Amino acid sequence: MLDGRVKTLHPNIHGGILARRDQKHHMEALNEHGIGTFDVVVVNLYPFYDKVTSTGGIAFDDGIENIDIGGPAMIRAAAKNHKDVLVVVDSQDYPALLEFLKGSQDDQQFRRNLAWKAFEHVASYDSAVSEWLWKQTGGDKFPPKLTVPLSLKSSLRYGENPHQKAAFYVEKSLSEVNAGGIATAIQHHGKEMSYNNYLDADAAWNCVSEFRNPTCVIVKHTNPCGVASGDDILEAYRLAVKADPVSAFGGIVAFNIEVDDALAKEIREFRSPTDGETRMFYEIVVAPKYTEKGLEILCGKSKTLRILEAKKNEKGKLSLRQVGGGWLAQDSDDLTPQDIQFNVVSEKKPQDNELRDAEFAWLCVKHVKSNAIVIAKDNRMLGMGSGQPNRLESLRIALRKAGDEVKGAALASDAFFPFAWKDAVEEACESGIGVIAEPGGSIRDGDAVDCCNKYGVSLLFTKVRHFRH
């Protein structure tokens, strides 16, 4: 009735599901009303998730009609009365169900597992409906209540350290259906991914995906230690390694273009710039695509090398992070140099090549842990300093790594400089830096401007901060 809206919502069905066989008055009530019992309930819900995430989209009224009512009601009823009724919501459980029915002994643990799976299935279904309806209301990204459905992808050998147990879950919310990233990457080769592998691969892929030109990014402990862009991706790879070959060894290499046989050979055979002999070793290579020959060559580098094929991340995603007793939610930091203004606040204006270097350094520094400093020139990272409690120490680390190449290079800082004289700004100027890009906003911005003017260095304010904790 009601165009099919009411089919199974009837006492004859729910009474037969919910009746407790060991309760005499329950069975008497069934007999009185002529209601039979159900021993097994198998339900396939309306494909709401598939419908609302289809490529062509779905009209609001059609979405509403694809919300299953009777199915979840039967599932919940059977799961509640799982002592007497088996409930199945996954076709992969059919063989186990048939084996159970053939047996002579009743296994309550088997019934409980099916009941748990049933409630989890309905909860996930309802979360998709809730998420979809919230979007239809025009609500913002931060609803009063937030449910994030997760599905176990794999158990991991351990967490960050061997004494920590760990697992990897894939998000199943509607917003993640067509999302790219490491969670949905295809692993073509190598050992199983570890907890730290996922973190590092995610950092490398997030960074390299932001560059428009062919780019190589090398990451170690979630920090990019080498970045280079250029039409010649082989040279870009070499320069990315050169930025910090010691850190690059054992790191994660990411490309934003297809890995062909020439690039694969270079990855496989390239020797460390530190001695010219040691063949570079990597944990992971990640790229959007591989040629057949390129993949074959890479697979021959090492049995353990993990080779991932990932889709580009979508912009505008919600970023979640756990703290004790709660979660922090924020927009992902998606800004690119094209989204902001590099305002010249010094007497000296940067040359076109210096401005490009500043933009490149700025795009790198947003992926480095705070306090972060990146020095770059000619579309390549020369050095970076990360994770220091004060900005001066991060600067000194970056300068040491950049070495003599610092002359005329660009420097980007993820946040403003609280001090200039006899501090980070002056040390940068004295080292030979040609242009500095920073957010500005300090009460001592004037000191930074005066310092740069004294040394003839260009200073750019972006008015955008990029803390990364």
From TrEMBL:
GO aspect biological process, one term: 'de novo' IMP biosynthetic process
Start and end residues of each MGS-like domain: 1-89
Protein keywords: Hydrolase, Multifunctional enzyme, Purine biosynthesis, Transferase
Taxonomy of the source species: Eukaryota, Viridiplantae, Streptophyta, Embryophyta, Tracheophyta
Protein name per UniProt: MGS-like domain-containing protein
Domain of life, per lineage: Eukaryota
Catalysed transformations (reactions): IMP + H2O = 5-formamido-1-(5-phospho-D-ribosyl)imidazole-4-carboxamide; (6R)-10-formyltetrahydrofolate + 5-amino-1-(5-phospho-beta-D-ribosyl)imidazole-4-carboxamide = 5-formamido-1-(5-phospho-D-ribosyl)imidazole-4-carboxamide + (6S)-5,6,7,8-tetrahydrofolate
Family note: Belongs to the PurH family.
Xref: SMART domains: AICARFT_IMPCHas, MGS
Keyword tRNA-binding: no
Residues in coiled coil: none
GO molecular function (one): phosphoribosylaminoimidazolecarboxamide formyltransferase activity
Pathway: Purine metabolism; IMP biosynthesis via de novo pathway; 5-formamido-1-(5-phospho-D-ribosyl)imidazole-4-carboxamide from 5-amino-1-(5-phospho-D-ribosyl)imidazole-4-carboxamide (10-formyl THF route): step 1/1; Purine metabolism; IMP biosynthesis via de novo pathway; IMP from 5-formamido-1-(5-phospho-D-ribosyl)imidazole-4-carboxamide: step 1/1
Pfam family, one: AICARFT_IMPCHas
Natural source organism: Gossypium mustelinum (Cotton)
Keyword Translocase: no
Annotated SUPFAM superfamilies: Cytidine deaminase-like, Methylglyoxal synthase-like
A GO cellular component annotation in the UniProt record: cytosol
